[in-house]
Amino acid sequence: MNRLFGAKNTAPKPTLNSAISNVDTHVESLDVKLAKLTAELTTYQQRMSKMRDGPGKSALKQKALKILQRRKMIESQRDQLQQQSWNMEQANMMTDNLKNVMTTVDVMKDTNKNLKKQYGKIDIDKIERMQDEMQDLMEMGNDIQESMSRSYDVPEDVDEAELDAELEALGEEADFESSLGVGLGREGAEGMPGFMVDEVPQFVDEPPQQGKVKEAAG
After folding, report:
1. CA distance 162 to 31
2. What confidence score (pLDDT) does residue 177 get?
3. 2 phi and psi, to 5 degrees?
4. Is the pTM of this model over 0.90?
5. Is 23 exposed, middle or buried (0-12, 13-18, 19+ CB in 10 A)?
6. CA-to-CA distance for 215 and 146, rounded, in angstroms?
7. Is 200 helix (H, G, I), strand (E, B) or coil?
């Protein structure tokens, strides 16, 4: 069967990058040939510049003409291959861009799907109710703070007559304390106070002498 229909080709299919590489390699080989032909033309030109017109110069001119024709043919072939390479490079760039676009689209689809799945679990009504409850709790806390900071039974108005009476009472109290202070001073000058004369602390071995107590009191 293989003899009739041929064997199945198992070789890998060429890719765009491999095709571009092959074309570029061919273009490089043509550049080498063109450089060689240009060098030959330069040699013929130098030889003919030193020769006089005649059969020898005409023969060299014919050879140079054939080399020039060959070089033009190779240049045309090289230009075509370079254009092919450029077209394949553009196609390759478009392919890469398309792959990037498809990858981006796939990622966006997955992201959109995940976002819908996540947002689908959120109940906006529950969030609104939670916000309302938080606002009510904040207002309740403010009311509690205001209630706790309230003052108790503090008179707001005090008239001038009450103020004058209070000041007069304070003045009389001060005068009374001053008079008590003067009386105590006289008692100390005349003699020993009763609490110091009648009672002697138990930790004192001997009672104080009368003269020394008077000196201390003076």
Report:
1. 122
2. 76
3. -65, -30
4. no
5. buried
6. 66
7. coil
